[in-house]
Amino acid sequence: MRTTGDRLRHAALFEVTALVIIAPAGGGNFGISVGHFKVVAVVSTSIARLWTYADNLWFDLAMLRLRLSRRKTLPIRVLHALVCEAGLLCLLVPFIAWYLAVPQVDVSTAKAQDGSWNDEIEGLRALGHGEEYSALTAAQVQQVCGSPAFRGGAVARTAATVQPARLAFGLRAALLRRGVRIHEATEALGVE
Questions:
Q1: What proportion of the chain, given as a percentage, has pLDDT over 70?
Q2: Most CB within 10 Å of its CB: which of 81, 165, 188, 192?
Q3: pTM, 2 dp
């Protein structure tokens, strides 16, 4: 099995090489300020370095357990690279979307979906937050996504997807830390 030094060297070389290749293209190609691009690049490479180290360690341990060898054939190397990159995408995309405040685009692909966002847009306008969510024409959606299947859409200026169970467990933990007693299946009548 490779040593910790080997793993750290591999992870560092991988990320430095990526920065050298990608950094020159930088913000200009993506319409991002150089300062923001640097933050995204440094944080992304730091996350990637840690992920690469952990992924290589886990993969080697799995190889030893399943095959009693660390020897990797070409198909195994390809599989490992795909798994590593998929995991890295799952870690980086949420950070980059959050840091750069990337908007969320909802689209319709069928007549029944057209305008399904109109009630939400009107509700936000009534609350004085009409700029948060706006309708897009098919042509505007094409500029963002470029798929001929998209018939129209709406863009949320700032948005996030919340996993309900994690939210509930997080709220529960925060309440318990503050000394709140939780009685399951009890109707809440108010909040003080």
A1: 92
A2: 81
A3: 0.54
